[in-house]
Specification:
The protein has 152 residues and is an alpha+beta fold. 33% of the residues lie in helices and 38% in strands.
């Protein structure tokens, strides 16, 4: 009799775990859709670079989506969108710059969403080779201008 109850209990547990996984994956996919291309209208209003319609998802998990276009392009090449549950908390945009003296250069712009609009923050990083430095918006805007790169 005990074996029968254990078997039924294990079967119920297995069904519960399977259903939980399906529901969780469905919820994660809905969140990812919400913060993908559909979120571009909100990004535009906030002045954050958009995800171009021709980009594809390179990698994804339950807490981030990595979108990319052409990794070798000069300009906007990648965007990562980070979220917890169904709440977005950050985005990271990466831009290739032309080589300088044969050394690769990148710009990274990280947006962190606060609890309300007043708590949002932006960090600008300029990377030359393996050396990265947090810099001002003014320097980043100057680099975009000099290199004739659109921030989109």
């Amino acid at each position: 009799m005990l074996t029968k109850y254990l078997t039924v209990g294990l079967i119920c547990l297995g069904v519960f775990i399977s259903l939980y996984s399906v529901v969780r994956n469905y919820r994660v996919k809905n969140c990812q859709n919400e913060y993908g291309l559909a979120y571009n209208r909100k990004r535009k209003a906030l002045g954050i670079p958009l995800i171009p319609s021709y980009w594809h998802i390179k990698e994804q998990s339950s807490d981030f989506i990595w979108w990319e276009g052409n990794e070798n392009v000069i300009g906007h090449k990648r965007k990562s969108v980070m979220f917890s549950g169904c709440s977005i908390y950050g985005e990271l945009d990466v831009y290739n710059l032309p080589l300088k003296d044969g050394i690769p250069r990148l710009i990274e712009i990280e947006y962190k969403y606060g609890k309300n609009r007043d708590n949002d923050s932006i960090t600008y990083t300029y990377q030359v080779g393996n050396s990265a430095t947090v810099v001002s918006k003014y320097l980043i805007d100057s680099l975009f201008s000099v290199e004739r790169i659109k921030k989109n």
